[in-house]
C-alpha cells in the first residue's frame, strides 16, 4: 500500500513526527536522524547499577541528542499504539498496584521471569511488531534504528519499555485468553509473568515456555516461584494473600532510612551506610506506599518532609 510513496512524501512523513527540536531546518533535521540511524552504537555509553541482590545491571544509556529523539518517538509515535490489557509496566495510567490486584486471595501463584528480556528482543522482532498499516517499511527501519543498539533493544533507552510491550502483545493476548478459559489470572510487568488460581503448575509453565521459545525467549529457571496460600504471597512487591498491602519488611526499611536521614542528613547517612539513597528515590518509595494505602498518616508526613528536602536540594543545586 506504500509503493506510491515517493522520497519527498517519505521525508514529510518523517518530519511530521517532530523528532528533532530546535532551530534546524528540515534538511538538517533529516541529516541528523539519518546520521544517528546509520551508526547508533556511537550514541550510547555503558553504565552499571547495582540490583537489590547485589548483582550488577548493565545499561546502555543514550547520549542527550539521541535520548531527546527517543523521547519524541515514545511520545509522538509509540504511545498511540495499543498494547495488551495484560501488560501493566510502562503503560500510562497503570502501576504495580494494577499488576498485583488480580492475584489477591488465590490458592496458587506462579511467578516466571523472562531471561535477558531486552537483549533478546531483536530488530527483526521489532520490525514485525510495528504495524504495516501505519508505517511504510522505510519509516519503520529508520525509527527502529534510532531505538536499537547493534540490532537489539538496549536497556536504558526511554523507548525500550514500550517497544517491549508491543513485541509481547500477541503473547499476552494469547496466554491471557488461554488462562481466562481456565479461570486463571494472568498479568505481566515487563519480564515478570504472574499467574494465579487453581491449576497444574507444570502444565501451565510448559505452555508458557513453549510460546516464549518460539519467540526467541527463555525462562530464568532460578526465578521460578510457586507460592501457595499458606505462604506469604507477593506480586511485584505487594503482599496479596487476603488483601493488597505493602510488605512489613519494605515499610520497616523505609522507616529506618527516614530515621537516619532526619537525624543525620542524606549525605552522612550514605557515607556511614555505604548506600546511595537520595531524597528523590526515597520519595518515590513513599509515594508507592501511599498509592496502595493513601490514608497512611505516617507516610503522608514522610512525603511532606521529603518534598521540602527535595525542593530545597534542587534549588541549592541550581544556585
How are the SSEs ordered, and which strands pair?
Elements: H1 7-15, H2 26-38, E1 44-50, E2 56-62, H3 64-76, H4 96-100, E3 108-113, H5 123-129, H6 137-145, H7 160-167, H8 169-180, E4 185-189, E5 192-197, H9 201-214, E6 225-228, E7 234-235, E8 238-239, E9 245-246, H10 248-264, H11 266-273, H12 279-292, H13 297-318
Antiparallel strand pairs: 1-2, 3-5, 3-6, 4-5, 7-8, 8-9
Helix pairs in contact: 2-6, 5-7, 10-11, 10-12, 12-13
Q: Shape from CA axes?
A: globular
**Element pattern in H and E:** HHEEHHEHHHHEEHEEEEHHHH
Strand content: 5-15%
What's the alpha carbon Rg, rounded to whole Å? 22 Å
- Measure the end-to-end span: 56 Å
Helix and strand composition category: alpha+beta
Query: How many individual helices?
Result: 13
Number of strand elements: 9
Mean pLDDT: 90
Helix content: 40-55%
Give the biggest beta sheet. 4 strands, antiparallel
Q: Please mark out the parts with pLDDT under 50 across 5 or more consecutive residues, or reply none.
A: none
List the strand order in the largest sheet.
4-5-3-6
Structure characterization notes:
With 319 residues, the chain is α+β, with helices and mostly antiparallel strands. Helix content is 47%, strand content 13%. The protein has helices spanning 7-15, 26-38, 64-76, 96-100, 123-129, 137-145, 160-167, 169-180, 201-214, 248-264, 266-273, 279-292, 297-318, and strands spanning 44-50, 56-62, 108-113, 185-189, 192-197, 225-228, 234-235, 238-239, 245-246. A four-stranded antiparallel β-sheet has the order 4-5-3-6. A three-stranded antiparallel β-sheet has the order 7-8-9. The chain has a two-stranded antiparallel sheet with strand order 1-2. Strand 7 and strand 8 (238-239) form a beta hairpin. Helix 10 (248-264) runs antiparallel to helix 12 and helix 12 (279-292) packs antiparallel against helix 13. The longest helix has 22 residues, at 297-318. The protein starts with 6 loop residues before the first helix and ends with a helix. The model has no long low-confidence stretch (mean pLDDT 90).
Amino acid at each position: 500500500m506504500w509503493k506510491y510513496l515517493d522520497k519527498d512524501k517519505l521525508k514529510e512523513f518523517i518530519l511530521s513526527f517532530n523528532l528533532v527540536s530546535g532551530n534546524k531546518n528540515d534538511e538538517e533535521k533529516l541529516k541528523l536522524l539519518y546520521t544517528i540511524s546509520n551508526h547508533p552504537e556511537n550514541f550510547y555509553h555503558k553504565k552499571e547499577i547495582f540490583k537489590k541482590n547485589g548483582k550488577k545491571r548493565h545499561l546502555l544509556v543514550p547520549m542527550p541528542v539521541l535520548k531527546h529523539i527517543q523521547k519524541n518517538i515514545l511520545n509522538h509515535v509509540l504511545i498511540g499504539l495499543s498494547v495488551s490489557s495484560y501488560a501493566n509496566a510502562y503503560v500510562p495510567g497503570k502501576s504495580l498496584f494494577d499488576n498485583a490486584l488480580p492475584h489477591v486471595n488465590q490458592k496458587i501463584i506462579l511467578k516466571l521471569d523472562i531471561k535477558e528480556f531486552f537483549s533478546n528482543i531483536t530488530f527483526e522482532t521489532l520490525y514485525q511488531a510495528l504495524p504495516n498499516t501505519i508505517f511504510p517499511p522505510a519509516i519503520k527501519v529508520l525509527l527502529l534504528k534510532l531505538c536499537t543498539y547493534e540490532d537489539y533493544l538496549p536497556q536504558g533507552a526511554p523507548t525500550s519499555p514500550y517497544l517491549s510491550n508491543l513485541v509481547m502483545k500477541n503473547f499476552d493476548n494469547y496466554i491471557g485468553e488461554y488462562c481466562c478459559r481456565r479461570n486463571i489470572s494472568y498479568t505481566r510487568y515487563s519480564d515478570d509473568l504472574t499467574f494465579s488460581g487453581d491449576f497444574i503448575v507444570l502444565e501451565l509453565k510448559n505452555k508458557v515456555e513453549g510460546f516464549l521459545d518460539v519467540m526467541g525467549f527463555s525462562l530464568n529457571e532460578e526465578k521460578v516461584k510457586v507460592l501457595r496460600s499458606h505462604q506469604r504471597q507477593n506480586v511485584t512487591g505487594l503482599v496479596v494473600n487476603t488483601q493488597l498491602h505493602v510488605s512489613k519488611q519494605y515499610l520497616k526499611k523505609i522507616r529506618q532510612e527516614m530515621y537516619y536521614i532526619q537525624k543525620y542528613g542524606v549525605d552522612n547517612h550514605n557515607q556511614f551506610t555505604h548506600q546511595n539513597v537520595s531524597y528523590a528515590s526515597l520519595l518515590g518509595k513513599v509515594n508507592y506506599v501511599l498509592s496502595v494505602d493513601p490514608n497512611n498518616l505516617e507516610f503522608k508526613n514522610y512525603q511532606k518532609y521529603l518534598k521540602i528536602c527535595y525542593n530545597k536540594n534542587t534549588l541549592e543545586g541550581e544556585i
